[in-house]
Design a protein that fits this description.
The structure holds two protein chains of two kinds. Chain A has eight helices and 18 strands. Chain A is an alpha+beta fold. In chain A, the strands form four sheets. In chain A, strands 6-7-8-3-9-10 form a six-stranded mixed β-sheet, with helices on both faces. Chain A has a five-stranded antiparallel β-sheet with strand order 13-17-14-15-16, with no helix packed on it. In chain A, strand 4 and strand 5 form a beta hairpin. Chain B is mainly alpha-helical. Chain B has a single domain, classed as MetI-like fold, CATH 1.10.3720. Chain B is built from 14 helices and no strands. In chain B, 27% of the residues are buried. The chains are: A alpha+beta, B mainly alpha. The interface between A and B is medium-sized, with 25 and 19 residues.
Amino acid sequence: MASITLKNVVKRYGSGKTAVPVIHGVNAEIKDGEFIVIVGPSGCGKSTLLRMIAGLEEISGGDISIGDRVVNNLEPAQRDIAMVFQNYALYPHMTNFENMAYGLKIAKVPVDEIKQRVDKAAKILELGHLLDRKPRQLSGGQRQRVAMGRAIVRQPKVFLFDEPLSNLDAKLRAQTRIEIQKLHHELGITSLFVTHDQVEAMTLAQRMIVMNGGVMDQFGTPEEVYNTPATTFVASFIGSPPMNLLKNAPGGKPGQILGIRPEHIDIVASGGWAMDVITVELLGAERLVYGTVGGEMVTVRIEEAHIFPKAGDTIRIQPREERRLHWFNAETGKRI
Amino acid sequence: MVDRRPWITVLSHLVLIVGVLIVAFPLYLAFVASTHTADAIVQSPMPLLPGAHMWENYKAALFGSGKLGSNTNVMHMMWVSFMTAMIITVGKIAISLLSAFAIVYFRFPFKMLCFWAIFLTLMLPVEVRILPTYKVVAELGMLNSYAGLTLPLIASATATFLFRQFFLTVPDELVEAARIDGAGPMRFFKDVLVPLSKTSVAALFVIQFIYGWNQYLWPLLMTTSEDMYPVVIGIKRMLAGGEAAVDWNIVMATAIVAMLPPAAVVMLMQKWFVKGLVDTEK
């Protein structure tokens, strides 16, 4: 049983009156075998949350349970977890084999079992021929795979990934993303993946936790987060280009913000809203039209279109469907 | 950019060659002097080429010739010097590694106080504290012993600082990965930190060995029996014969012999240095 339960998890730095709260009461239930992505901008507390689950940071309030055990006071090695770091954190003076075997050696696992487990992990990750080399002789992607191998051999209840793809170049990132997905399919171990990249979040997550300023704004599947964002933050964070948020939308009440995604707006011949085009970007298969509606910036995404606006034109745009309109409370940012 | 001024290369080579000559010439003279008879050296001009008496001079120097000057067995003095230098070096490295480890990786009460206390001792040269140190060593009955020769010189602020600076460059994630792997602090120290510190240890080994080997003031003060003299004191004592002529050739031979172990240490450790530098990785 490797579910994870977060109950009112709070983190404060410092103590007493001058304590700075950075995580304000996160509640979440993660099921056994789920791949959960914690996504948010820099400084939102996602890494802190992960490190509290790992045991590398102390928990200031609330409870974290792995399986049926409350793990607040357990050392990382006792929580049955494994972690993959952004900078790989491989021991430079040990061979890749020794790197992967180190945790097992400390746990006094018999030598032949260690070899068996390492060889199996190396096979899954295609590292067999690199086992005798040292980390510095490997490329970034290979090092990350060794780091993942080190996590796999521990046969943990939970995998924790702390922005593991951030140090890789774009092509390698896409490749390693697929490998992580494959791994999850094969091994089915509950995984928590932290990233600031919403593309990684959308592609990898079965469900995702969107964090903002130490608060969990939404916890849902990629579809839910995309189609029904719970706050203006989630609305503008997920989806590229970001959702248009209009304070004074035509047809809206005061105190309400209208959200509509660029890909859900059509250019129409008449009716709809008037938009003054500022610039048009060609992205190959699509174009992004930037302009203003009632003084507010709006982006429209059009594909092979017959109507090609140019900078300086005034065009008419209309949301495609009623259900693509999202209304938010201007004061709280929450969905209405 | 291609360097279009070859004369700078010539100039720098010239300067280096002159520098080497200035440093090496006295050593060469010492070697030459060690291969002649005592009378040949004293004549002027001093011979500039090696003589024919090398082996007998060195034998006499190493094993005592029964003649005037010091009768001490230079071999024994070499052994004393070697032991002193090794004990000081190994002791210093061990203690400094552990102190730097404590300072960098642990939080404990009065940590800053300890840190500054260690730092302050850097400002006190050996000579300033030599009288109290002598009193303590004498009262503990450690005069004329290896313990007395080495213990006061073992604690070192410089070595602690060197290791501290190095430990600060070890990424935190390595510590965290070790924690997750289940390594406690001492395990981490033994399996990760120490192997990573190899280059610093090698560098420190060389420096401290030479420092320990060349110790003169402290052994002079606290040893009175000849069998605890390090070789540098032995050399000095050979010159003490006021009435009789000094056997310069034996003295020079002893000096050359006394220079060999530190030189050997430097040459051996150089391999480690270079290997360590090539091996270094983040």
